[in-house]
Amino acid sequence: MVSLFYAAEIVGSFASAQLLDAPTDDFTKAFRAYSVFFVVTSVGYGVALVNEVNNQNEIISDRDSLSNMLFGSVAIFSWGFTDALIQGILYWKLSLYYEDDKDQSRAVGFFKMVQSAGWCIGFAISPPTRVSPLIQCALTAACYIIGLCVVDFPTATPTPDEGVMNKVEIAVSSETTHVQQL
Length: 182
What we know:
With 182 residues, the protein is mainly alpha-helical. It is 75% helix and 0% strand. The relative contact order is 0.13.
């Protein structure tokens, strides 16, 4: 299952690049990427919830049925895909908000610190002897919902073609004689 998670990360990285490199404004890029994130993550949590509710009282060795493996695989793939997707979105947004290299480095460092803290908490609660799988699913789903509530969409910015036109208009309106340098 771990290899499936990381294979899905590869697919999610490719998807984030496709979504965020589209020739459209930043708001549309973000809306599309967050929509894919929402749908795929919701599928993962839905499948995991059904699987955990249906198998709550079973011993782990009894859960190796094909249906349980398929449910688990869909959830793991969804989470690997969206892990890469949301990281791609975050790095893209950091490039929008922080133009200076030093500021970008600090922002990425802070993100990695928060991400590592999340992994530490996740590993601390992961043994089912500490926290039941159903409660683990509920806790991570709560983090997902909180994250959705605090999403900050970038404002619409001009596409590259519109940006060139705006520069020419600004140059002409400010009576610059070197329009050809643009």
